[in-house]
Amino acid sequence: MAEERHKRKERGADRMKSGYAKAEQRNQAAREALKPLDEGERPAVVTVGAVVAGLIALSIVAGSLAGVKVNGETPKVPQILAPALIMGVMSWGMWRARYWAVLGFQLILVFLIFSAVFGLTVQAATVAQFAATLGLLAVSGAFFFFMVKAMARIQMPDRGPRE
After folding, report:
1. pTM
2. Nearest-5° angle of CA 43, CA 145, CA 87?
3. Which of 36, 82, 112, 142 sits most deeply, having the most CB atoms within 10 A of its CB?
């Protein structure tokens, strides 16, 4: 009985090693299929992200200058400058195809995705709220998905010939 259990355990370990080997082959093929970015090149999704981040930064500043109130109160200067500065720097970084900026934007997208899921499960009370939250989830999820490959290309080392 113990010997049979040991053989099953070995077969399971062999299958797991085989599965890891196959997965690593697929990963290697995916890495080899990636084309490094040319000098000054920026993936389209990163360009769109840079524009969106820039528009968000501008909208924060414009709202402040227009005297917009949040929950009946005028936001304090740090509450305006911090998000505007973060989004502005992120926009600049994505425009320059910097990995850290794309990663930061993806972090914001993750917060949006979690917020949208929470909104769908707990807070959406009307059909309009449900539809808008579902739209937010679809857009932020698609954005996140397409940025993954762009991040891989940005992070990729140049594969030029060695000197």
Report:
1. 0.73
2. 65
3. 112
